[in-house]
Each structure stands twice: as structure tokens, then as C-alpha cells.
Amino acid sequence: MNIKRREFLLLMGGSASAVALGSLSGCDRKVTVSPQKATKPAVQASFSFNPIKGPIPLETDGFKSEQHKENYSSFEIVDDLMLPDGYQYQLIAAWGDKVGDSRFGYNNDYLSFIPISENEGYLAINFEYISAVPWMQTYKQVIGKSLPFDEVKAALKGQASLKNEINAFALSDKDSIKVKIGEISKEALLDQGLGIISIRKNADGKWERTNSSADRRISGISGLEDGRYLKATGPAVAVFRKKQGVGYIDKLSDRIIGTFANCAGGTTPWGTVLSAEENFQAQVPEPVYADGTSFDPGKRPFALDDEELYGQGNVLGLAANKYGWIVEVDPANPNDYGVKHTWLGRYRHEAVGVRAEAGKPLAFYSGCDRRGGHIYKFVSSKKVNNPSSKDNSQLLQQGMLYAAKFNADGTGRWIPLKPDTSIEPDLPSNIAGNLIRLPKGPITAKQTDKKTLVKLPDPIPGGNLEVTKDEQIAQYKQKFKKLNDLYTGKAEEKQGAILIDAHYAANAAGATCTARPEDTEIGPNGDLFISFTSGSSDKEGGPDTRIFKGPKGETPYEYGWIMRLTEDGNNPAASTFRWKMLATGGEPATGGLGFANPDNLLIDPSGNVWMVTDISTTKLNKAVKSRIDDDGKPASISGLFGNNAIWYIPTSGSDAGKAFLFGTGPMECETTGPCFTPDQQTMFLSIQHPGETNGIRKNQALETREFMVTSITGEEFLQTRKVPVGSNWPSKNPDAPPKPGVVVITKSATT
């Protein structure tokens, strides 16, 4: 639905003119709105701009409804970062560039600018994952050396199994294939994690790297050979230190090798950066045993073919329970290689919202970016004294993790994830896809052969159950009464096991299954703003259909939402809250704002919103020849929205609540991590995985596709769209390799 001005003022917690924000989740942001006299809809701000034309009609595109057919019957997608007139971008770093004693990683995501002085600071960058097709295709060309891809592919194809997987961990260390797999896996993990680079704006107004002593990489193999282990705090450390357990133990105690799958993040008021480990399950097994120990590395075998590369932790024997956490790093300390705070929980973390107010407990908010994932809040045991003091990092070492329970009436409560919390799972019939996964719990006496005292293999202790029928929930509740019944160990070990298994423990406790939460932002009055990217379901589960509905009540609904959550009493430690949906993605004709799949949602000090989208790569520009599929059901229209984009939503004036298109990304990429410098004259932006599906754009390859488009009033008409195949960004030279990179966006002085 379109957001009315009054709703946006409520969203901002008061008059938009009174809004002020600190740099809690990236760079300082400030955009002011003033009247615009141009006839074409425009935004007058520190980053004032005339919106660019996108692939579908918008309320804010400057055309009348009757002009949409004429102006959108044809459209051409461009393999570049497209910005408004008067704006330009500069590439500041890309995959393969030197960083300290290592290199700039792959698929850069979250960005945080930490000022040192005026026009100078540290840029912290997350590196999320490897896009198999372009990474393998261009590795030798970009990095300057070869990897044994062909040899390993040939070996895997020669297996009796039809799968392209192998448990390299179980092979002899002298096995030539294991050695080659180790070489590939180390390089892939090296390109993940996070990095710190020092930058400044020179006298010509250009940004440049200064390559200070603080420049460094913290990668997926930090500590493996260089001794730069990551540290950990909180109850899960007791599990890491176990010398014996039900499952796999890496014998490193509380030392941790690396960080990977680093997606979104946050910045604290005391100047540290928080990096969120998201889809770690692609590299190591996610489920754990009832004592919190890991499954054997063989449960996530290494895999390689022309389109896939996963299981990179297998050959290295990584303990899976050490991944899926929030990592804190101080960019200014060159000797800081990261601390994983286990009180914040282990799950597929996406973003971190930090609420630090003097005299109150510290509150951290984060979401689990999976279908059916939850919203979480950590509350510290002690209170904040000075929000800018680095002593606040110690508050992350003691507290409680909560998961959100949303009620259909707009209320909700926080469920503590601790041993005495009751078992109360939601019913599968309330969840899109009719599936919820619950912890299996430990082996019981009934599951043990009393004569031989041999534990039977099924069900195994730990792991999770697929529950698809409501009656199964009643049976589960008869067997397990509290989270205490699902986990084993001493008191701290049991709390650690719950935090390690946070997603499944939260399912058991009754936390609401949501729609891929991809950002958690703190507003000026303490409210939490959450972007939910997609309401579809998969084998992991789906969202609660009583909460997540389309503009006309559709479930499941693919195109996303923005939610506001208000703590009762405006207290970060409150046990209850209120919530409201404030915007829904989708086409304007059906109640959407014109974007699809909202991701980062950034609120500037003036109360305005900058947002980037996360349409799945395989859906970008996919032809939509009909609105009805072969089964007579509504067809997916994700392809209509073109490339992933950057949007601006003002919150005051006559255009409040409308979405203006600021930019679109190169082919097959995701635009991520936007943030501003303190003077709001420079925007940093990540361009992630250009050419992810098709790799290098060869011979300027181009396809013409057809789309059934609608005007903002719902009139259908056919659009022919020219779509490049693959990418040559950032060089844009013919047949050049696509590379993820970070850009700085500025406007001309005359604009």
C-alpha cells in the first residue's frame, strides 16, 4: 500500500523536521527536503536529484497515466550503475585489489565509514560469499594464478554417485584430490569475511585509499596458518571448550578459525563495526547435537561443478557451531581480528540495529534471513553509562537473547531463549508452506536398547524434525515441556547449546516465523524498523500468514514489507511491543510502491528513507509474457522490476510516502550497503555479484524479452525490453571480467 504522510510521520516517531539519527548502522546520514520547482518530479536535498526512469511505470516517474503505454512500450537495460543527471561514481576498490597483506574479497556487502577526521576515515566492508560462475571463470584473469578447478571437477564426475559432492575431510591428507580441494577452499574462504581500508578525500574532491597500517583482512581462514584466530564471549564458549561431546570437536577450544558469509551489519556509537555471518550453512552443517557440539564436517561435503561451489569448510574440518554469529571489530585497532559475541545467538544473521542510551540496558536487534526466520533482541544485564565509550563492548558478554512473537492484533512479546522457557511452537497450518522445523532433542531411554546399551541411530540426538501437521505439535509438547528438555550439559553449556541452536530453539519456544528479515534499523525515537524481503516459502519454512499478507490479503506474497516495531514504554528492555506494517512492495496498480523485495532500509537524520532491493538474481529481467501461468494461477512478475535498485522515500511535503528511483545496478548484481559521509556529500555503495548467472558478457550479448506491464491505473500493455547477458562491470570494456566493487557517488558542484 502507499504510505500516507501521517503514517510516515508516525513511522518517524513525530515531526519529520525534528528527526535526528546517529551513525548506528553505517555512516552518518542526513538529507533535507525543500520545495522543488521543476515540472518533472524531483527531490531537493543534500543529494537532490531528478528520478531516473525505471523499467515499469511509477507514480513518481513524471508521466501521466495515459502516457505510460507510449513511454514504456520499449525499454533498454544497461550494464552499469545508472544514476540521475549530475551524479557520477568512482570505483574505490574491487575484488583482487591489495588490502594489507591480503586482497579485497568477493561480493562486498555492508559498508561502514568510521571518520578519523574531516574527509578521512576507515571503510569497513563485508565480503559475503562466492558466486561460482564468475568467480571460477575470472579467477586466473583477476588474481593472476590458477586453481585446479578442472582436475577436481573431473574427479567428482568420476564418482559412482551422480552428485558432485565429496567428503574431502575423510580423505588422507596425502590424497592429491584432497590437496586440490583444500587449495580451492582456502582461496574461496580468503575472499569472504571482512576488510578494513583507510580512505580520504583529496584536494581535487576525489576519494583515494591511503593504505594505512590499519588496513587488513579478516577472512574465512584467519587463524588457520597465520595465528590470527578470532575470539569469543558468552555461554557458547563453554561448549567450544568441551574436550568430549556427542558430536565433532575441533580441539581448538575457544579459538576460532575465520569468519565467512558476512552479509549485513551495524556500527556502534562507540566506533566498532558489527559483521553478521549469514548463510554459513552453505559451507558447514548448520544443525547441532543436543549438547551444542557440531555435526561431523562430512555432513556438509565439498561440492564443485560448472555452476556450484559449496562446502568450503569441509576439507579444513571447521567446527560448524563456531559460525553464524555477530563479529565485533574495532577498525582503528590494527591488531583486532574480531570477537564473536555468542549471547547474540547463532543463526543466519542479517543486519544489526544498536540501541544505546545512557542509563538503560544496551539492546541489539537482528533478523534471521531465511524463510521462516525470526526477529531477535539481545538485552544486556548492565546499563549503558556513556554510549560513546568502548567499554560498552563488555556489555555484550552478559544478558539475554529474546525472539519476537507477533500477534495478529498488532501486539507482541519477547520470548527469552533460556532453559526454563516453555515449549509452545506455532501450528504448521498458520505458516506459508505448512512447515516448521523443531529440535529433535537428546536421545531418551525409550530410544536406547537397554540390553546392549547401544544408542539406536534414528532419531539422532540433535538436528531437527520437519513438522507439517498440527497434531504433531501436540505430540511434541507432550514429550518436551521446556527448552531445558531439548538440550544437555551443565547450566552454562545448556544455555550455550540453546544459543548455538537459536533458530530451532526459537521455533520450539513459539517465536513467529517471518518473511526473510534483511534489515533492522533504529529510528530517532527508539522504534525498530524492519524490512522483510519475501513472503514465499521453501524447505526451511515460511512466514506466518496471519501477519504477512499482500495489499489484498494475498498469501504467500513475494514482494516484501516494511514494519515498525515500538517497544512498550519506549524501553529497550521491555517484554512487550506493538507493531504495524507501513509499506508493501509490488506494482503501484495493486497497492505497492513500485519496488520489489526491500533490503537495506536507511533512515537519515531528516527522517527520509534510502533503500536498496534484493530481487533474486535468477528472477532479474525474467520475461513476463502473461499474468497467468499454465495452471491458471497468477504468474510471478518479479522480472518486471528490472535490475536491483536504489530508492529514496521522502517523509515530508507533498511527496511524502512516495518512492523515487535514484539508481539501478549493473547486470545480475545486488546493490548493497549504502551509507553517507558525515557531511552527506558522498555516498558509498557496494556492487555485489555483477554477472552472477551468466558471468562475462561476451561479444556485447543482448536479448530482447517481452513483459506484460501495467500502468499505475492497471492498464496492461506489452513491453519489449533489451537485456544484456552477463556483465563487464566495472571496467565496462567488451569481454572484461565482472568484479564486485565499492563505489563512491557524488554530485557535480553545479547540480
From TrEMBL:
Pfam families recorded: PhoX
Query: Which InterPro entries does the protein's record reference?
Result: PhoX, TAT_signal
- Signal peptide (residue range): 1-20
Swiss-Prot/TrEMBL keywords:
Signal
In its keyword annotation, does this UniProt entry include Repressor?
A: no
Q: What is this protein called?
A: DUF839 domain-containing protein
